[in-house]
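INFO worker-7 received task bundle
INFO bundle size: 2
INFO processing item 0
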Amino acid sequence: MYDIPNLPYLYDALEPYIDQETVKIHYEKHHQGYLNNLNEILEKINFQKNYTLIELVENIDELPIEDRGEILFNAGGVLNHNLYWKNMSQHRNNRPVGKLADAINKEYGSFETFKNEFIKQASLLRGSGFTFLVINHEGNLEIINTPNQETPYLYKLIPIMALDLWEHSYYLLYQNRRSEYINNFFNIVDFVEINKLYEENI
């Protein structure tokens, strides 16, 4: 069955922008919960194939139709959170580097324009979900929103940056100030890691 990676930093590493308690609960309860639910469903249907999580999503048509919704929801929950945690660090590498910097400048004109567009799209999301920076079918960068735990891999898009907009990701610290959380994400985003993902997938 599947597992989740260890956090690449301590629970308090993202303070003051995301507090220690939120990171702990988010990782140990929510992220782990999606994994536990996914493994339980796959065990119930006697899933035997040696797919990666991404391959599991891409081959969802092979699984029983009555279980696909729950499998996609929980697999998406694991994949989305894996990326979300990896996108942030205490190192404050919050300016694009490498080929990603070039691609952002080409697609958006400047980092500031990109940042403003990402914040705008995140602010437009209603209810729970994620805002992603993805590599689209043409190999270009695109900012998209998905509801709940829907993963871009379902649409053969490659996510390289994720912002969790479920209330459990910010409510203990920010309460209803979601826009403040969205803006503060750019204080702890790690563009070194995001550039690695970008360069691995172009």
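INFO item 0 finished
INFO processing item 1
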Amino acid sequence: MKTAFRLVLACLLVVGLSNFVLAQDKANTVITILVPEKGQEETKVKVNGKKLKGEGDTRVFKASLVKGKDYKFKIEALIEPNNYTKITRYKEITVKGGDKAKVDLTVKNPKTDKIVVRWVPTPDDIVDAMCKLAKVTKSDTVYDLGCGDAVMLIRPIQKFNAKKGVGIDIDPKMIVKAKENVKKAKLENKIDLRVGDILNVKDMADADVVLIYIGDDLGERLSPVLQRTMKRGARIVSHRFLLGSWTPTKTTTVKGTDGFEYELHLWIVGEKKVEKKKQ
């Protein structure tokens, strides 16, 4: 009986000692995450898929981990600088248990940042003004990147006799709506609509004109795509937003029938800027 008791006591001592050693082997691990300051909404942060609480431009992740052991973390930030743009930014790091690390998610990453822009319609008369600025003719193929309901494709054909329209939108539901509008306008044989990411367009050699209304963040990312894929002399007109550091050939302000002023930018691939003009 005494022997059995001693064995049980020895086992308890071993288990207790093991737990003590394991507890000693663990250490606090801290990851400080820098994120953009609040825009339309507070930046939302996830670490390995779990939402991290906090506000402001700094978030802190803490965990008790085995000291010296490598741990992988996927850190994700959902940034909403305004009410129409959502940017998802990722970073993966490896941290040893017990170490401290800092991750900066304030820096743009053109290779991995995912940008989604909410579609906002451009008034018909402003679409017409964009077509005039681009000097759309009957021989032109017009692209609308982020085409939404396809109005920027329908009007160039109906009002300016453009030869063809091509629309690309990342949202399949918007392409369904666009197809309905194209059908109503009886232009199915002249307008090609595609679901896709406009940043992944490989070839726009047939584009004579591109019309866009997409936000500055997406415009900055789209700029090198346009310059790389479009032919010399092709025209790009943007409602309101710029294309990163690519200086417009011309900027003009027009007054809409609604009484508001609209700034339009024109780029002619291969041409330099001319002076700003107000209409």
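INFO item 1 finished
INFO post-check item 1: The helical segments are 2-25, 124-134, 151-160, 172-184, 216-229.
INFO post-check item 1: Residues 119-278 form a domain with the Rossmann fold fold (CATH 3.40.50.150).
INFO worker-7 idle
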